[in-house]
UniProtKB/TrEMBL annotation, chain A:
Quaternary structure (record): Heterodimer of a catalytic subunit (MsrP) and a heme-binding subunit (MsrQ).
Membrane topology: Multi-pass membrane protein
Family named by the database record: Belongs to the MsrQ family.
Keyword Cytoplasm carried by entry: no
Annotated protein name in UniProt: Protein-methionine-sulfoxide reductase heme-binding subunit MsrQ
Places the protein is found: Cell membrane; Membrane
GO molecular function ontology, one term from the record: oxidoreductase activity, acting on diphenols and related substances as donors
Ferric oxidoreductase domain boundaries: 54-165
GO CC, one annotated term: plasma membrane
Primary localisation category: membrane
UniProtKB/TrEMBL annotation, chain B:
Pfam families: Oxidored_molyb (PF00174)
Function: Part of the MsrPQ system that repairs oxidized periplasmic proteins containing methionine sulfoxide residues (Met-O), using respiratory chain electrons. Thus protects these proteins from oxidative-stress damage caused by reactive species of oxygen and chlorine generated by the host defense mechanisms. MsrPQ is essential for the maintenance of envelope integrity under bleach stress, rescuing a wide series of structurally unrelated periplasmic proteins from methionine oxidation.
Catalyzed reactions per annotation: L-methionyl-[protein] + a quinone + H2O = L-methionyl-(R)-S-oxide-[protein] + a quinol; L-methionyl-[protein] + a quinone + H2O = L-methionyl-(S)-S-oxide-[protein] + a quinol
Gene for this chain: msrP
Quaternary structure, from the entry: Heterodimer of a catalytic subunit (MsrP) and a heme-binding subunit (MsrQ).
Name of the top EC class for this enzyme: oxidoreductase
Name recorded for this polypeptide: Protein-methionine-sulfoxide reductase catalytic subunit MsrP
Organism: Yoonia litorea
Alphabetical keyword list: Metal-binding, Molybdenum, Oxidoreductase, Signal
Domain Oxidoreductase molybdopterin-binding: 50-204
Annotated family: Belongs to the MsrP family.
GO annotation, biological process: protein repair
NCBIfam families documented for this protein: PRK05363.1
Cofactor note: Binds 1 Mo-molybdopterin (Mo-MPT) cofactor per subunit.
Amino acid sequence: MAVTDTLNKGLRKIPAWLIYVVGAAYAVWEFWRALNQIGPYLVEPINVLERAYGEVALILMVVGLMVTPLRQWVGLNLLKFRRAIGVTAFFFVLAHFLVFAILDVQSLERVWTEIVKRPYVTVGMLSFVMLIPLAVTSNNLSVRKLGAATWRKLHKLTYPAAVLGALHYLWLVKGFQIEPIIYLVVIIALVATRYVAIPRKRQTAPS
Amino acid sequence: VGLGAIGLAGRASAQGLEPNTLEEITSYNNFYEFGTGKGDPAANAHKLVTSPWSIKVDGMVDRPGDYALDDLLAGLSVEDRLYRFRCVEAWSMVIPWNGIELADILNKVGVQSGARYVAFETVVQPENMIGVQRRVLDFPYVEGLRIDEAMHPLTIMATGIYDEPIYNQNGAPIRLVVPWKYGFKSIKSIVRITLQEDEPPTSWNKANPREYGFYSNVNPNVDHPRWSQATERRIGGGLFAARQDTLMFNGYPEVASLYEGMDLTRFY
């Protein structure tokens, strides 16, 4: 209790926009390393960059989905960062898609063929498309215009988008690989917490 | 045989084949026994114990046995072969191999008349192979060729790259190279060669028969369910490398006669 209080107090001092700054800086840093073929980008920078952006997007989706359960069960309040986490996740999905389309596949026609013909690309694309309205409405004006209830309903699209993102990863790897399975299991578990009744931690405990 | 090698190399350079650097060839690999990341084999394969090395030759051969590697290769000529190498993941390299024609090795052990296929097996050293511990595939890795594919002069057993002993991550101390097939057919770190009558099981076919067939010839007209095979990216072009068209049989049309009359969409 004392620990989460201290943490919450400290977190209040951190501005949410820092997440955009760090996210953008990281994306540029990875691109710069890919361009100069440094480290993991030494031999084949295109696929490595594509995967790096995709993986950050998945990690951010997991973190975004953890905000509510962390608040309910641990009392850790990350709510004010959630929008920035979600929007940054969207930008990494967008960057992932752009690397795929422009640097990897290199033609609109082939991009379309890939989306239609390859189920793992189809589900990845579906996830991306679901995230677009969420990114567009991630501002206070949209919350007011849509009304809180409608806005919340719309933003439940996060759940299928995250599951499809993890499925996309699992589907594209070869053989039995543990990492994508972990992402999928964690994301499904986090989504499940929304639908399974679990005793909540009291928010207004007297101190 | 030497003239043939010069001929092949000469034709390759006439086609403008520029070999990839040793650094590229030795740091971007698929060798799932050492992990699934492209850099994992380079990071982990130093654990592979390659000396002493022996190869069990069995099945329908006149002189079966456990051969020390040097004994098996003694008296056979090592040739330089500059080959395209095309991965099923739609990337490719050009690699200057040093190796022995598989036909020379098979003739040395004496193939019996009933043998129609050659089966190969990769070493398993569980304590040294992180991918084996994680059961990424059903190990040992196994592969196979039809006997006419195995005897084709393009098919070699490579022991070197750029006149250096082959690196562990590339399949030390000896691996198969079949340049007109997807890379996973070119099985690494071989410890067993079996001549047999029946088509042998192959690892990727066992793992996913819908996606990987026995033949796995490079074919731009037959897509892998998850990757288009029409184009490929040559490793080494950097972040803005253009794709190039994939060639039928990876640009080795001389093997087409091996598959005459076969429906290559069925026998993929």
